[in-house]
## 1
Amino acid sequence: MIKEKTCRLLYSPRALRISDSQLLLNIRQLDHELEQWRRSIPVSIRPRLTIRSDQPLPSPDISTSQIMQHIKLQLDYHYTLTVIHTAVRRCGPTNEDESLPEDLHSVVHSSIDLSLEAGRSTLFFLRAAMDILEEEAFR
C-alpha cells in the first residue's frame, strides 16, 4: 500500500505538477507511514534503518523462512525509502542561476542523504546475504 501511495503522490502525472512544499509534505507523510510500517514488524525480522558493512544478518537462532522473510522485508524497506526520498531532487528552482532557500536546502540534502544511505545499506545487506544463502535464493 505504501509503494502504491508513493507512486501516486510522488510520481504520477498529477504529482509532477505539485508545488515543492506539497512534494515535501508528501515525502514527509510517506516517510512517517513507512516508519510506522517498519515498527509494526516483529523485532526479530524488522528491517534495520541502516546496514553497516560489518553488521551480520539476523540472529542464527531464527528459522530459514524467517531469514528469507527478513531479507525480503529489508530489501523492500530500503527500496521504498530510496524511492520516497529520491523524489526530492525535483525540488528547487527551475533556473540554474537561482538557489534553494536555506530552509529547503537542508531538507533536500537530508532526503538525498537518506536515499544514498538506503542504497549503500542495500549493497552491504546483499553482500552479507550472499554469504549465507545459496545463489538460487535471489532468482
Note: The radius of gyration is 17 Å.
## 2
Amino acid sequence: MTAAPSPEPVRPDRLDVRAVALGGGHGLAASLSALRHVVRDLTAVVTVADNGGSSGRLRHEFGALPPGDLRMALAALCGDDEWGQTWARVLQHRFRSEGEMHDHAVGNLLIVALWELLGGHVQGLDWVGRLLGAQGRVLPMAITPIDIAADVEGLDPADPTATVRVRGQVEVASTDGRVDAVVLEPHDPPACPEALAAIAVADWVVLGPGSWFTSVIPHLLVPDLRTALTSTRARVAVTLNLEPQTGETDGFTPEQHLEVLSAHAPDLRVDVVLADRRSVDDEAGLRHAAKALGAELVVADVAAGDGTPRHDPDKLADAYAQVMKQA
C-alpha cells in the first residue's frame, strides 16, 4: 500500500505570485491544471449554482452546496505523482448501477460527508485538499446554494424577439434560445469570506475560461465578490474560450464574450485578455474590444492539438507564465 506522501516540494521555477482563479467546471479545471505549475500560491473560487446530475441530487437531498465543480477543481490541483493522480481518478469516479447510486461521483459524496462531519464548507474542502496533497486551495464563491436565471430570446415561436426568463444552471446552459443576461437568485448571496480575503491579497486574478453565463459571469453578480474584484490591487486576466458553447453562447465571437462581460460588470478593470491564436478571426477587432476594458490582448497557442475545444495545460501554463513575468 502506498503511504501518504509529504507535500510535493514547490518547483523552483514557479513564480512567487499569489493567484486566484475563478470559474467552474471544465474551464476552471483547465486554468488550475496550468496555474499550479506556474505560481507558488493558488486559490480557486468556484461557482455553486449547479442543479443537475449528482450535484443537483445531493443539493436537493441535503440542502448542501452543489459539490461537483468544487470536486473538479480539487482534482485539477492534484499532483502529477502516483498519489495525486490516483486520488484525482478516485474523486472523478462515478458509480454505474441500476440503483440510486448510479452516476454519483465519489468526490461529491466525500465532500458532502466532510461538510456534515465538520460543519463547515471551507473546513471540509481544506481536509479534502490535505488528503489529496492538492497544490492550492478550493473555496466556494458563496456559502449558500444559488440559482442562475437568464433572460433568453428566441423561445417563443410566436414572437422570436420576446424574452423568456429561464431558471436553473442546467436549463440556462442547454437553452435553445439566445441568452441576453443572467442574474442570481437570491440576488445577494453571502460571499465566502475566505474567497474575499484571497482576492484582497492576490497578485493576479484569472477569470475564465468556462461556460460564460453559468460559470464565469456569476462571480461578478455576488455583490461582495464583485466589490472585491473591482477593488483588488491584483492584475486581472480574462482567458477566452476556444469556441462558442452550444446553448449558452452559440454564434458568439470572442469580442462578444468581452462585451457581455463588460455589460454585466462595467466597473471591472481588466489588464490582460488571453486568447488562442486559432480562435481569433479578427485580431484587430478583438484587440479593440480588449482595449475598451483597459486590457492588453495576448494571442498565443494554448489549444490542445487533438482538434477538441480544450486548452492544453502545458501551453496554457507557458502563456500564463509569460504574461505574469512581463507584468
Note: Residues 5-10 have pLDDT under 50 and may be disordered.
## 3
Amino acid sequence: MTDARLRFPPGFLWGAATAAYQIEGGVREDGRTPSIWDTFSHTPGKVLGGDTGDVACDHYHRWREDVRLLAELGLTAYRFSVSWPRVQPTGRGPAVQRGLDFYRALVDELLAHGITPALTLYHWDLPQELESALPGGGPAGGGWPERDTAYRFAEFAGLVAGALGDRVEMWTTLNEPWCSAFLGYGSGVHAPGRTDPAAALRAAHHLNLAHGLGVQALRAALPARARVGVSLNPSAVRPLTPSPADLDARRRIDALANRVFTGPMLRGTYDDDLLADTAGVTDWAFVHGGDLDVTRQPLDFLGVNYYTPAVVSAADGPGGPRHDGHGASAHSPWPGAGDRVAFHRAPGELTAMDWPVDPTGLKDLLMEYTAQAPGVPLYVTENGAAYEDKPEGGAVHDPDRVRYLHGHLAAVHQALLEGADVRGYFLWSLLDNFEWAYGYGKRFGLVYVDYDTQERTPKSSARWYAKVAASGELPRSLPEAWPGV
C-alpha cells in the first residue's frame, strides 16, 4: 500500500524568513542612518506607488508580537537579517549598541520560545555612506564595485559575531549576491539603481570577496559550534529547444546567474567561458592575486533560494531579456549576454509576480548543489509565492499558496529521497512586506498585514504549514478543490 504521507527527517527545520528593510521600519531611530534602499525608495519613479520601507511592518516595535506568531505556528526556525546601517551607521568604525541591543533582544525572545535563530548579515541594505563615496577616493568605498566595501563588510561581520555569537549558531554571509550585483548595478531595478555592466561584474567579484572575508571574520569571532554558510539564488536555466544555439544561450546564463558565484566560492575559480563571454565588458583586472583563495572558504551549509525557472534561447535580434522575472528595464542585468539571449515564460500557472510555478526547478537545483558541494548540508533558505490575497470576514484564504507550497515541499522530499542532504526549509515570507521595487503591491506572507493598522492575520496557508511543521509530514496530494483551513 502506498503511504499517504511524505515524511521528513527528524530535526528538519521548519522556518520562515524575512529581511530587515522589508519589515523593520524605524529607519531614523536609535542611530540608524540611510541605506541604499532608503535612498532608492525615496527617489521618484524607482518603486511602484512611491512606496518606501520607512514604516514597513513596524517590526522594530512589534517584534515580540511577530515572535509570538512564529511560536503559535509551531515553527522551529526563523531567518532574519541584520540592518547594517542600524548596527554600523557609516559602514565603518564601532557598532551602535542600541542597534545591537535590538537584535540581542530579538534573538533572546526567539530562544525563549524554542525557535532557532538563523542570522543573515547582508540582505541588500548597504549603508548609503559606502555607496556615496567616490571611486578612487582613498579608503572610502563607492558601493560594491569598489574593493574596500568587501573589507568593510568583514569588519561588520566581526562586530555582529562578537555581539551575538553566544546566542546564534546559524550564520549566513550574503543573501542573493546576484541581485545585489546585477539588479543593483546592471539593470538598475534595485538599489542603488546604477546601470553599468562593468560595475556589475566588479560588484559580483567584491561580493565574492566579501563572502570569503566575512567567513574568515566569523570563524575568528564565533565559537566552534557555529555554522557558517551563504544563501544564493541559483537559476534553474533551461534551453527552449535542444538546438546548439539554445544550449549555448543556456550556458551563457548559467555562467552569469550561477557559476559567477559558485565558481569562486566552491572551487576558487572563474570559469574560462565566463571570462571569455564578458571580455568585451571588462578585463577582470579587479581580481587580485590571492583573491580566489579567500573566496573559497570551507562552508557548513549552502542556502538555496528558489521561486521559478528560467527558459532561454538564442536571441533572434537585439532587445535584451524578456520574461526574465527581474523587472522592466532598458538595461540588461546580463553583461555580455543581453543581446545574445532571449528569455521565455516557462509553462505553468502564474503567481501574482507573473512567475510560472514549477517545483521541479527546486529539486533540480538541490541535486545540482549536492553534486557541486558533496558533503555540504543544504537548506532551502527562501521559497514562496505572491498571490492576490484579500481578507474576507476576518480571514484570508489562499489555497493557491498552499498548492504552491505543497508542490515545492514535495520537490524537497524527492530530493531527499535521491540523496540530497537538505536540513531545513524557510518559507518566504513570514509577513507580507515591502517587496523591493514592487512596493506593497505583492504579498508573499504567511501572515496578512494591514499596512494602515499593522494588524496581523495568519492566512490559511499559515495554518496548513503549521500542521506540516508539527507533524513533519506532507500529504502526498491535496484535494483538487482545497477549501482552506
Note: Residues 5-475 form a domain with the TIM Barrel fold (CATH 3.20.20.80).
